[in-house]
Amino acid sequence: MNVFDIIGPVMIGPSSSHTAGAVRLGRVAWKLLEDEPAKAGIELSGSFAQTYRGHGTDKALVAGIMGFDSDDERIRRSLDIAREKGIEVSFTEAGIPGAHPNTARIRLTGLGGRTVSVQGASVGGGSILITGVNGMAVSFTGQYDTLLILHQDKPGAIAAVTNFMAGSGVNIGNFRLSREHRGGEALMTIEVDGEVSQELIDSLRAIQVVEQAILIPAL
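Structure (tokenized):
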């Protein structure tokens, strides 16, 4: 535990769960999109659905998908800024079975047509837990640099990635594999100790079985 777990995050807004955490959920979706957002469809569940306007959760999520930090003064005007940028934003109240009360599912479309879907929860004190990416189950908090590696589900794929990272001196702190079905696409979620260079990411992308490698820097 560090001091920020005790005193809470530096943030704009009345609630760390409904604002700081919501900004971070949006930022994860923004990083995964790797493009400027053109459209955002946001489903809210539980407490998020009941109180999102009063607590500014809508402003926080939209700020996050534009790449703002949780202490950015522009959060208060994020809905207006999104309109000025031509970003189409919609909010839907939806029940997500078994989900944490502060859960959002964010579907982003970029200017270039790329799409991404992220499901996650704000679990208190500004902390988050991402539980789904593009329909595949994941589990990461954003407290560490996290690599998401989409790859072909073939023998040797995991070894190709992890052996290369070991040879590059990067220590894996946590690893999870998700896949929709055998032999299709799979997703590695790798939390690492230390910094990840752009050179390493480019090298991972060059591995034959890897289709995409994205770094989510520690939030």
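The chain has two domains: 10-123, 145-216. The mean pLDDT is 89.
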